Amino acid sequence: MFTADGKPSDDDPRENGPTLGDERTTLVEAIRCARLTLEMKCSGLDAEAMARRSVEPLTMSLLGLVRHLAEVERATFRVLMAGQDVPKLFCSDTDRDGDFDGAVPDPQVVAEAWDAWRAEVDFAERFVAEAPTLDMTGDDPMNLHGSGGGQMSLREVLVGMVWEYGRHMGHVDLLRERIDGRIGQ
Known about the structure:
Elements: H1 23-42, H2 47-51, H3 62-81, H4 98-101, H5 107-130, E1 137-139, E2 151-153, H6 154-180
Antiparallel strand pairs: 1-2
């Protein structure tokens, strides 16, 4: 949300969510707000702006972050928690940074990134809503998710996703401000 004074706005969809919810409600709301922040910070930008790199020689861009977060959502909820054997979306064994490297200023690449991200978010939201308990676990034998090489509870996964988005929202803020000077909540 971009406001003239930098203060929350009455029409900010991240405001006025549940504040007295249980653990699941609280974690889901935190992730929902982080996901909305990503969408809001990228709103109104064309493919060139979305793909603009932060500073040379870094490959970080808003488009790269959308692609990266789609990969993280997929690896976390489909692979780790649901046990699905699905390929990565943008990265590969030969291009581990394909999420950022492939973030080029092409409207089709931007549309595909958003479609992929939204599909993974939809899957994650359904998975979490249908999970019987936050104590359910996924196996992370290669320690790809910070488990230490073992089981992770859905609770820990949700906390990790809040952390992952929070970590990248600072990048998103700086990238957006560099593009057009806009700052916001």
